[in-house]
Amino acid sequence: MVCLFYGVCLLMYTVLVRSDALTEEEALEILRESAHLRQERMKNIRSSGYPAYTTSCAWLGYSDEILTKLAREALSQGFTKFKVKVGSDIEDDVRRLSVMRREIGWTNMLMVDANQKWDVENAINYMTKLAEFRLKWIEEPTSPDDVFGHLAIKKGLSQHGIGIATGEQCQNRVMFKQFLQSGAMDYCQIDAARIGGVNEILSVILMAKKFGVPVCPHAGGVGLCEYVQHLSIFDYVCVSGSIGNRMIEYVDHLHEHFLHPCVIRNGSYMVPEAPGYSIEMKPESLAAHEYPDGPVWVKLREEGLIKDL
Fold first, then answer.
1. Catalytic amino acids?
2. For position 2, what pLDDT does the model report?
């Protein structure tokens, strides 16, 4: 799997990176400089897995009881990195973050995600109030297209040690180029379904390497965990050579519909063993959800939960 991606990258680099941000020569040199370490890195990643963080513990509206239960379950599964949704109500966010810190302690990692809730000034003010929880990053604090807004928020929060994570809404390498060149992004969150295919993503991974920004893929949607594990493993084996300060999002949701679902052990993604992109769905799942005559849709109509227009 990784060797195939390496080969694709070597073949396609001339089309991907004709840019002032990363020249063809720089891209090729990045790939060549650590080629002799690929087998060793592959051995390492097969042994340890790729670090994951969980978003499943602390959605908006969760009660103290649910937060406690899910945090303890995640800890028992080996997770040491956690993300909390924030931005709708400061008092409720303080409540949920307090419960999470109580349960996971202060040595485990905690991040927050605002899903574009604020403008620049509000983002700085809001996050300053949450700085006491020692947060690694604020994800999507403002409009995903506002490069300079993210940069201003980064500067405003630098005294608190809170980084800026974004990129899941970036649809091409040009947006990532602007975030990376400007320094507005501390953590690069590629999205395998949003951006235009593997080749486009590889160019972003190469640019992130040049600018020293760790790639931490977004995987909060159905099938994204299956997709992005391959991309991060490629990044480690062929580009960055590091899992320090890098992690993949994990949401425990609907993996049972895939022929080769991702495998999580001790809070880490295990290297996929089946060929391909791990995204092929089970025929019975596709048939059950086919619109408009699949059994799932038929049942929803019978129960009066949906109506045909």
1. 85, 218
2. 46
